[in-house]
Design a protein that fits this description.
344 residues, alpha+beta, Rieske Iron-sulfur Protein, 2 domains, 4-stranded antiparallel beta sheet, disordered N terminus, disulfide bond
Length: 344
């Protein structure tokens, strides 16, 4: 091989050439940053990092103040405003730490390239000692030991940030231990069934065979604007279906839970709580779109397919003096996929 020939071995296959090995190009020449060459630029970068950490500290303090100062008043707007203020405070707190860390790494910390050969197992003591020395050199090069303000800012910012999560959690402990409320929904005796989301009460004559209506409790308009209503509505949502009475297979103790073929079942799947809402009129099957659990509405909403292992809870219904559909009581059991007093 003469001086003008490349040192790379080349294998020719047909019309293409494939190199067997490439020459290691090595590490490119190190390019110094402005902060490496100019002490004033280095000091300016340090101040910028400190300012970002201080912003994080301010964000943490603001989050804690907002948590105690802006309390939800039960309305949707107040909950939204409180969550927005908390989110902004936490965003500022975490963003300050993130931007400071990135800016510090780019402008202050050592950016000299290091090469370390791979070893399949534990390195020798000499190699380990060399690695520790490299880390110490990097710490010395970053100047963290002599940058007291920067060190204080990073410790304070990182130390305070967990308070944005810990304070709300700790302060909420012990506020409400009434677990019995999870057993029941807001359906009560005499509550009219209303369309969702319009809230229009439903008469039995509005339903024809094959009709399917998404139903919520009939409550005053002002109550539907509260946070409490939104929370409770998620548990109380119902699917109202009218079948031919001849197709219904009702247990003896449930024959008065329907009205002329109209039945009402919880929309919350007993598998993992997805909304069950896909109804097949010919088979009377109700399908959960998440995991294909299938319930037979004509036979007590029993499971006929899929991972759910319990029927959908039924809401007993009747009609009032004006012909409107009303609840006789709450669901026959807690809604949803699980409950601690339930065997399955």
């Amino acid at each position: 091989m003469n001086e003008n020939q490349s040192s790379t071995n080349v294998t020719t296959t047909g019309a293409s050439t494939t190199p067997d090995r490439f020459v290691d190009p090595g590490i490119p020449a190190h390019q110094e940053r402005m902060a490496d060459k100019d002490p004033a630029a280095s000091a300016r970068a340090e101040r910028q990092v400190v300012i970002l950490f201080v912003l994080s500290i301010i964000g943490t303090i603001a989050t804690i103040v907002v948590y105690f100062a802006i309390r939800p008043e039960g309305t949707t707007a107040s909950v939204r405003n409180a969550n927005l203020a908390l989110g902004l405070g936490m965003f500022l707190s975490l963003m300050g730490i993130g931007l400071a860390a990135v800016h510090w790494a780019k402008t202050i910390m050592s950016d000299h390239e290091r090469v370390e050969e791979r070893h399949e197992q534990r390195s020798t003591d000499e190699v380990r000692a060399a690695a520790v020395a490299v880390l110490k050199d990097g710490a010395d090069d970053s100047g963290i030991a002599r940058r007291g303000v920067l060190k204080g800012a990073v410790v304070t910012a990182v130390g305070l940030f967990p308070l944005t999560i810990a304070v709300p959690l700790i302060s909420s402990v012990g506020n409400d231990w009434d677990v019995s409320k999870f057993r029941h929904t807001i359906w009560t005796k005499g509550t009219r069934l209303a369309t969702d989301p319009a809230g229009r009460p439903i008469k039995a004559t509005d339903m024809t065979i094959g009709s399917v209506v998404h139903v919520i409790p009939d409550v005053p308009e002002e109550e539907r604007q509260t946070h409490h209503w939104i929370t409770e509505k998620a548990k109380a949502i119902v699917l109202l279906i009218r079948l031919d009475p001849a197709d219904l297979k009702e247990a003896e103790d449930r024959k008065d839970w329907s009205h002329e073929g109209i039945v009402a079942y919880s929309k919350i799947c007993t598998h993992v709580g997805c909304p069950v809402a896909l109804y097949e009129q010919q088979t009377h099957h109700l399908l959960c779109p998440c995991h294909q659990s299938t319930f037979d509405v004509a036979d007590g909403a029993k499971v006929v397919f899929g991972p759910a292992n319990r029927p959908l809870p039924q809401l007993p219904i009747a009609i009032d003096d004006e012909g409107y559909l009303v609840a006789q009581d709450d669901f026959n059991e807690p809604v949803g996929p699980s409950y601690w007093e339930r065997l399955k």
